[in-house]
């Protein structure tokens, strides 16, 4: 079975949970990708371009978590908990390095990451090249940057990361729904 990974990022609440950065991947089998996209698009409210956990109400978050739980996908979330003085890009780099190794070890060959600025996207690709040259990941692993509103499967890791963040902040209900499908990997400084 071919699996594709869809990756999104978030920082936790820097006031209540400082120094925490999360990078998550939804691993989706190729055979269900179109069906999953349709289900996710069906959750959009009038005028919404994409699902974004941060902007949703408690009721909608529950609906999203329950919907994600019913989908055929697995989730890997790398959590970096470090000094809040560490730059965000370093946090991301450390999380991405670990996530790419995890995805490669699971046989994922295509990784779709929510696009950011051009220079930031290029830095991601340089990291992948470095990991390949160090033989930490295989040559088959490919990374593509895509806009969030255009790819509903990127909304999956956003929801899962949102549920992990909520759990860290004392609201475990969302993650409890998703926990059987989520592998959390913590990395420190």
Compose a concise summary of this entry.
This is DUF3800 domain-containing protein. By secondary structure, this protein is of the alpha/beta class. The protein has helices at 33-41, 58-70, 88-105, 118-133, 155-168, 173-178; strands at residues 3-11, 20-29, 74-81, 110-114, 142-146, 182-187.
The CATH topology, please? Nucleotidyltransferase, domain 5
N-to-C span: 35 Å
Proper CATH architecture: 2-Layer Sandwich
Order of helices and strands: EEHHEHEHEHHE
Amount of beta strand: 15-25%
Task: Report the structural category.
Answer: alpha/beta
Count of individual helical segments: 6
Look at the structure and name the CATH superfamily: Ribonuclease H-like superfamily/Ribonuclease H
Written account of the structure:
It comes from Carbonactinospora thermoautotrophica. This is DUF3800 domain-containing protein. The chain is an alpha/beta fold and 189 residues long. It has one domain: Ribonuclease H-like superfamily/Ribonuclease H (Nucleotidyltransferase, domain 5), CATH 3.30.420. The chain is built from six helices and six strands, in the order ββααβαβαβααβ. The chain has helices at residues 33-41, 58-70, 88-105, 118-133, 155-168, 173-178, and strands at 3-11, 20-29, 74-81, 110-114, 142-146, 182-187. Strands 5-4-1-2-3-6 form a six-stranded mixed sheet, sandwiched between helices. β4 (110-114), α4 (118-133) and β5 form a beta-alpha-beta unit. The chain is globular, with a radius of gyration of 16 Å. The mean pLDDT is 95.
